[in-house]
Amino acid sequence: MNKIYQAFKTASGKLLALASVMLLGAFAASAPAAAQTDTFQVTATVNASCSVTATDLAFGVYDPFSATDIDGTVTLQVLCTNTTDYDIGLDEGVGQGATVAVRVMESGANDLTYSIYQNTQRTTVWGDTVGVDTVSDTGTGTTQTFTAYARLFALQNAAPGAYSDTVTVTVTF
Prior knowledge:
Mean pLDDT: 89
Strand content: 25-35%
Strand order of the largest sheet: 1-2-7-5-4
Number of domains: 1
Oligomer: single chain
Structural class: alpha+beta
Number of helices: 1
Order of helices and strands: HEEEEEEEE
CATH topology: Immunoglobulin-like
Radius of gyration: 40 Å
CATH architecture: Sandwich
Number of strands: 8
Helix content: 10-25%
Low-confidence stretches: 15-24
Distance between the termini: 102 Å
């Protein structure tokens, strides 16, 4: 029995020693390693930006003997970066002698006059002088839609022909 006890004692000691080594290894593995840290900045720049598109304005067939003005509309779509203040201006067009108050369509040497307004009553002319006769707004980062209201004036002594003009839309931001 003494031999059995000796063998058990020897085996227990070896097991105890092995368990101790494993336990020390586990503590050593979980001990914090030396570390260094640093930080870095993350930056970006967003520049103010705008774009604009416009539909065409077609008054249709004009009867120079009719006493009725012909009204039409133009849809303007403006896309500006969020919080960007902007102004939409419409120039006088390319017709000779045109102003923003009285624009001119031409067919050769012949003219038809019309105007473009900011409101449905067609009382506020839409021009291109910022702070005077333009439309102001602030960008939202999504497309914003505006309507320009046009009027082709009645009873003009117009010759037959196809009349046209080109108006430039400018978004100032």
